[in-house]
Amino acid sequence: MPHTFTDPSGLSRYGWTDPLDQAFTEHYEAGLLPARISRVDRGLCSAITASGPVRATFAAPLGPDPLLTPCTGDWAALRPGTDPHLVALLPRHSAIVRSPASGSSHGQVLAANIDTVVIALSLAVPLDAAKLERLLALAWESGAQPVMVLTAAYAEAGALAPGVDVLVASVATDRHIDALAALLRGTTVLLGPSGAGKSSLGNALLGEERLATGAVRAQDGKGRHTTVRRELVPLPDGGVLIDTPGLRGISLHDAADGLEQVFAEIEHLAQACRFSDCAHDSEPGCAVQAAIRAGELPQRRLDSYRKLQRENAWAASRTDARLRDERARRQKAITSHLRATYKFRDQQP
C-alpha cells in the first residue's frame, strides 16, 4: 500500500519533502522512522524525528564508502526503541566535501543536503583571495548556491566570485541582515575561517543568541573555535541553519566542477585558444595569455587556478590509487577463497 505523505509533526520545517517521503517507502515498511541528523559526536548523534529530538547510535560508515559516515544535515532511517539506532542514510542531493587534514585520500563531509552556502569573511584581516577561491570551489562543488557575506566592501571580492550574490552586512547594525535572510533557501550552512563572525551572523539570522561566539585577536583577526561541532537549528522564517567550526585548512577533494565555476572567466577564455590542449603558458594563439597582456586578467588569478588544479589532480590520483588497491585486495581475497573452496572440494572422498 503506497504511503501517503503527511506531516502533522512539522518535520517539513527541517526540510522533509514529498520526494523524500516517497524515497523512504521501503524504510517505512521495515518499521523505521525518518530523522534528520542535527549533530554528530563520535558514534552518537542528535537527530530530529516526528516525535521530537532523540540521541541515537550508528555504525560508521553506513555503507561501503567512508563518505557515507553520518554527518550534520543527513536524512537517515532510524530504528526506534529504548536504544535508537541509525540504520541507513538517504541519498544526499548535495554535500560539502574537503580533503581531511590527516592527509587521507578519503574525503571528509562537512555538511549534507544543503541548498545555500554562506561564505563569511571578516574586515579584521586583509582579503585572502586564495582562501576565498578555495572556499568558493568547495561551495560550488557541493551542488548548493554560494552567497558571500562581507563585513566591508572589498572591490576584489566580487571579481573573484562570478555568479555569486555578494552582500556587505553588519551584525552590529543589522545592515543587510534582512536582505541576506531573503536569499537563503532550504538548508543553509555557514562557512569561513575562525573569527569571520559566522556564529554572530547565525545569531542575527536566528533572532536570538543561540550560537556561542568569541573574541577575535586584534593583531591578526583570528578567533578561537567557539563552534566546536556542526549543528543544525531551525530558522524562524523557515528553513534550517548549520553552523560550522572555522576552517583553517581548506584542501580540495574532487572539486573539478567547483574550480570551473570559480575560474569561469579563464574557462571561457580558454575556448578561444588556438590549441584545445593549451597550457596557457607560451603557446601561440593563447587567449588566456593575451588577456593577461591586455590587463584583462591578473596573472595571480591564473597562477591560483593552476595551483588549485594541481592540488585537485593530486587528490584525485591518490583516490584512484586507493580504489585500485582496494579492488586488488578484494580480488586477492576472492581468489584465496576460491582456492580454499577448490582445495576442500578436491579433498572430499
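Above is the first protein from milestone M3; the second protein from the same milestone is given next.
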Amino acid sequence: MNHLNVFNAYKNKSNSHEDELTRSFLILVKNIPMVQVMFFELIRKEMYEENIHSIASGDLSVEEVHTQLSDTNNIFTSGLVDGRTLVSVIISDDKFEGGANVQNEDRKARYDGVVLCNPSWVFIIENKPSKDNIWTRQLNPNIPDSVEVKIVDKPCCLSWRAILTGLNSLIQNSMLNGIEKVLVEDFIEYVDNEYSWLNPYTTFEVCKGNTYLLDKRCNLALSNFLIRGKKPEVKYHRGWKHYIESGKNTVKQIALDSSKNGEGWSITVWLHAGDTMSAAKESFKNMDTDKLLELKLQGFDIEPNFHVSYRSSNLLWFSGNLTLEQYLRYWKKEYKNLRQIKRPEFMTYFDEMEASCMIGADDRNIIQEKIMNKNYPNLNICPGFTITYTWDSKSAIKLDKCGKFEEDFMKKVNSAFAVIGGI
C-alpha cells in the first residue's frame, strides 16, 4: 500500500523522522487543491525565470504524487516522464543559498517526493529539515539516457517556514473547510510537536508583522510559562483571548496577544485582578497600593475595572469619576464590606456608588435597562482593576532575538503578582 495513503504511516520510522515529515506534507499536496495552489505559487515565485505558470490560473495541475521513489522506479524507466521539464526542489528550515547547479548524474538516487504535473512538468523533492545537512548532489536526478527530460539547472529552494506560513494563512483566511481544514490543522500541530523550530512563529521577527502568526508566537510564550514549575495548557476564552490559568485567585488568567498600531504592532500581557467578588477581596487584602502604583513607573498600565455580575456572567462595567489612586485606596479601605446585594437593595447600593463617584449619573439609564428591568435576584460587586504591560515591536523583536522575551514576560507577570499575591 502506498505511503501517501493517510492510514499507511511508516511502521519503522518515528514521527520525528524527516521521511514522516515529507510523507505528511505530500498527503496535503496530493489531496487538497488549495495546498497545491499555495505550494506551486511558492515554486513559481522562486523560479519566476523558468515560466512555471501558477496553478491558480489553471495552467498547472497535479497528476500524480509519490514519496520515496528510487531512480529505477517505472515512472522514470517507462517513459512517463519523457518530454517533461524537471525541477529539483529542496525544502529546508531556511532557504538554501548554496548556489548548486542541478544536472543529471549516474548515481543511486532516491527521491523524497515526486510530483508529476500537467502540462509536462516533473518535480523531484528533497527534504532536509536543517539546511546545514544538505548534500548538493542529492539535488541531482538520475534519468536514463533513453529518456528525454529537460533539467532546469537552478534548484528551487524553499523553506519549511514559508510553507507553514502559507498553511497558516489558508486557515486564517477561511480557505479550507471540513476534512481539508482538519488535515492542515493536524499537520501544523504535528510540526509543532516534532519540529517546533520550523514554525514561522518561533520569534516575533519571523512573523513579519502578521498578527495571526504573532498571536501564535504569544501562545508559544504562554505555553512555556512556568506555573509552580510546570508548563500550563493554553486555553481560549470565546470573545476574549488565549490564556493560561495562574492557579491564583487574585488574577485567575494570564493572557498575551498582539495588536496592530497603525503601520506597526505591539505585544501586551493582560491581567484582570479582582474579576470576581472573591478575587477582589483577596486582591485588595494582599495589595500594596503604593507598590502597585509604582508599577506605572516601570511601564505598566493600570485601569479600574469596576463591574457587577450575576453568577458567572458579567453584566455591566462602569468607568466612574475617580482617579486610579482614589479608586484603589477606596477599595483597599472598603473591600471587607463586599457582599452579594439582594434585589431590594439594588437602588440603594447604586445610590451609594454614585455618591462615591464609582458610577456616574449618566449610568442610570443603562442600569435601569440592563439590571432593573430584568429579574436578577442578586448581584455580585466586582471592583477589579486591569494590569497590562506592552512591548512595542522593536522591543519585542530585540528581546526575542537574544532569547530573552519569555524571561521578560515572566518577570513582568511576577512583578504584578508580587504586589497582589505572588504566583
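Note on the second protein: The chain has a mean pLDDT of 90.
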